[in-house]
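User: Hi! Is it possible to get a structure for several chains at once, not just one? Here's what I have:
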Amino acid sequence: MVKNNRSFKIQKLLKQNETYLFLVIITYSIFITSLNSSFLSLENLFDLGKSSAGMGIMAIGVFIVLLSGGIDISFTAIAISGQYIAANVLIASGVDNIFFAFLISCLVGVALGAINGLLISYFKIPTLITTLGTASVFHGALLTIVGTKAINSAQLPDCFKAFGAKNLLILTKPNGINYGLSIFIIIFILLALLTWLILKYTMLGRGIYAIGGDIDSAERSGFNIAKIQFFIYCYVGFLAGIAGVLHISLIRYSNPTYIVGTELSVIAAVVLGGTRITGGSGTIIGTIMGVAMVTILNNSLILVGLSSYWQNFFVGLIIIISVSITSYQSKRSIGNIVFRR
Amino acid sequence: MVEKLEKLLAVKDISKSYVGVQALDRVSLSINRGEIHCLVGENGSGKSTLIKIISGVVKPDEGEIIINGKRFQSLHAIDSISEGIQVIYQDLSLFPNLSIAENISLNQMIERKKRFISWKEIKNIAEREFSNISKELDLDEKVENISIANKQLVAICRALTQDAQLIIMDEPTTAITKREIDCLFSVILDLKKRGISTLFVSHKLSEVLQISNKVTVIRDGKLVGVYNTEGLDHNTLSFYMSGKKIVDSVLDYREKEGQKEPLLEVKNLSKKGNFQDINFKVCSGEIVGITGILGSGRTEIALSLFGLNRPDSGEIYIDGKLAKIKSPQDAIELGLSYLPEDRLNQGLFIKQSIGNNIVVTILQRLLNRFKLFDNSKKYEAAKEWIEELNVITPSLETAAQALSGGNQQRVVIAKWLATDPKVFILNGPTVGIDVASKSNIHNIIKGLANKGMGVIIISDEIPEIIWNCNRIIVIREGRIVKKLNTNEVTEDKLLDILARKSN
Amino acid sequence: MLGKYSKYSKTLTLFIIMISVFMVISIFLPGKFLTIRNFQSMSSQIPEFGLLSIAVMLAMLTGGIDLSIVATANLSGIVAALILTKFTFSQIGGYEELFTIILAITSALIISLICGFLNGILVAYVGVPAILATLGTMGLFSGIAIIITKGYGIVGFSEKFLLIGSGTIFLIPVPMIIFILCALAAVIILNKTTFGFSVYMLGSNPIAARFSGISNESILIKTYMMSGLFAGLASIIMISRVNSIRPGYGSVYLLQAILVCVLGGVDPSGGAGSIFGLIMGIITLQVLQSGFNILSFSPFSKKVIWGLILILVMIINFYSAKLSQKSIKRLKTN
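Assistant: Yes, the chains can be modeled jointly so their relative placement is included. Here is the combined structure:
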């Protein structure tokens, strides 16, 4: 009954966006390596992984939102709020503990996410307008109430610095310099795994796919739409909280105007990963690959002879090209535009 | 045998009125275990309200509901489901982005308040149910990739996983082919053997007569009667349903002597996967009926004439001249109008005023010499058509969503009449419209033909076709299988032609 | 009657809100708000985000949105600024200077039209949802702006050009005159032309529009091009008023423009909204803005307030939609 032979599997693989994205990443990496042989070294890959883990974690959040048929542009404001408040609380209380920082940052994240969730699930405000408004409120409130002063490396509690330097697997280069696999990468992988488990093995996760597929059917089947939407935005807040702490630990510095403004590259990574913008379809693996592609591209701009000024341009281009491909595909598969909207 | 005939569901003297409108008036319905029961009535007769009451979505004003011997004071949707009543709506309520297996099993999981998913269990449940229906499909396939008939089977399986005792199917045959209907019927008969009842809601009499044991007929919210199918024939049932033998007058059409060219002529029109070798003519003053089941190609042909579905080959002549129709704009320019079948999505701008809805097709005519809108022209044009077609509305500024179905349809008709078309194509002109408005709309259409317009009515309601058209074209699987004159055919004969599998 | 009633009641509510905001600010800021200078400064600020609001409104009327307006304005402003600074001729005051100014303005407007055209193509032909299409082009346009300027600002234009942003005619600032003319043009286009009528119809039901013989693709492309053009006009006023331009300038306008639209009664799902309502929204916002300036609120606290008002308006809309849905049901059954 169920076909299981090899050619069938290959056919299925060829249908998936991830396959093509993977091939593009490989080809591009080889190209970059031909320009600079150190690109494909383990050290550089570990380094890229560490610096993009925060973005990857935020991308997971955006992925879930797009999956449910919405959009979120307030997650960067949430991330910086979590980070900056956590750092300030740690300094003020004198508690120098990274878990405490995570706790505060995530609490802030979940609370702000809950506000989004409430506005979207209860008041049925379009997700774009909601998050556009809350992004402004969250960030403005942070700067007004908590402050605008940057926290420099000297003021920063040690736990952040220690956490940022923590490597799990330490290797030594021939010239004697140590490098290693940052704990950031492990956190990112664990969160990706957790999200995958939620999406695949819980009723809640299937509910997210269901409301992205057909929200009316989901309601009739007995899914609690409001609850699911509420969860989604709280979870995005939680992820943003974690990303905030990773960010401060990475750059050993906290400026309350950082992170905000990077929404575009995160959204670009997710749509590049093949998540369908109309909801209901997309994979976590695709999202990870999207993040990898955007990271490699950003990282290699200078290598291919373009200044970092080109970054915005490419991010915009990535969004346009990838949504154009998926939109055009779905437009064609629906057939004549007349029959459906 | 005695146990088998035990009553599963009984609703007695149900009344329901929405502010001012009596949707149901003391209607009763009773269904036995393992029975295939048909609920028959015209559009707007109250069928869907009754289904909603049985499924607990709508509360009746009066009357009692007894399921499995239990009397329910107020029936909630959850009660109805836990008593084994499952409704399969026309849109099927499936998730296109999920697999067949998950679609089948997910509802059961929700009902059991599961928090976690076991994919093995999902697959087991799906396999168990699907093996009963004995259909070979890859359970991992996404639902968006399978045919409507298969989607229907998935929906039935899903209902079965929730221990359905009674499956209510709302017009399940409108979108599937004859062969698929046969398959569906064999599934329903299978369910009967397992003691599961089916309430089959339809207005297609031949299917009703073929599948059911008992028929309950309602009309205008009132019960007409409950009949054993054995004693019924097509004519009687149709009489019960409409309450009239011949109310509509037959179209009086005589070929005009002087007419040389037909208004519209279609030659060898083909589009792969849609229709093949379509040839027909429409003359001035003629009403041509095109009939066939949904998916037979009837709508696709109309869309091709209107520039929304480009054909691969063939020619369209208007007034004897070869017409190139690439868009609705071209079609309108050439004197064609098209009333779409989906009034709310394709025909109306429900949030816009009635006035705007009417003048949208004739914007160019409302301009003054500076090429700007002349509001008095707009007002007059809209007012003229409101009066001409008797649209009942408080004002021209009223939003279209505030009107009744019949008035809305008259607004859409007005929009097209304003363009002064030569040929008017009406697709399902009376779908979802109450009986009184229906005959009013039919009279409007006949009046147009009498004034010399060429009219095409596309419909799967046989009486509508027979009583309004002078010629009938029957489409099956994209081909014209029969052309008839109305005076040489009866409803039964036409139904026979429609239902036959192949020539 | 219902349509008329709800339309008028909405306008009336807006009018009452505008007047009350005006009165409250006047009463609480005596001698500071009701001054000619303050009114002049208000009327020189309105045009920029007023034009950008019209740009967003046009896209919203079709059921879409244009997030790329500020980026479009930036890019066309930078092109104009480059022409103004690089093409300046040695002899000042001659025809050459005027020629340069005209060339700069035309190029800026052409660039903004091209930006709008790209949005239109993506939305109309490729079928990309407007949110993501314009989010992408927002990145693209601002990216090009950064590439051209390498991130630096361009400062210092000729005196004559600055007149556009800071000159007055009979005490009325030139930007205000430009804005009034543009708003009038928008009113005529939306209410008096077949194109405008089609925009509303397309916005309320694109499928029915297609079935009624409206060419959705061409309407959408024209709408986004107009949207771009208004952003381009805003950019000229903007660079002339502040005598400089740098990539990223004016990003706060995006939120304000969207806020003004929903405040002015434009339905984000398309098909409803008027320039009249929009202008009342603009005035309300500007009065508030000016009050905050007098009270010397920080830009951050203003950010909070704009966001809060946006959300508040949407919540009010949610409840009023619920109410009007009920009244339609009542009307239908009578």
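Chain C touches chain B at residues 1-4, 7, 188, 191-194, 197-198, 200-201, 204-205, 207-215, 271-272, 328-334 (CB under 8 Å). The beta strands of chain C are 154-155, 168-169, 172-173, 244-245.

User: Great, thank you!
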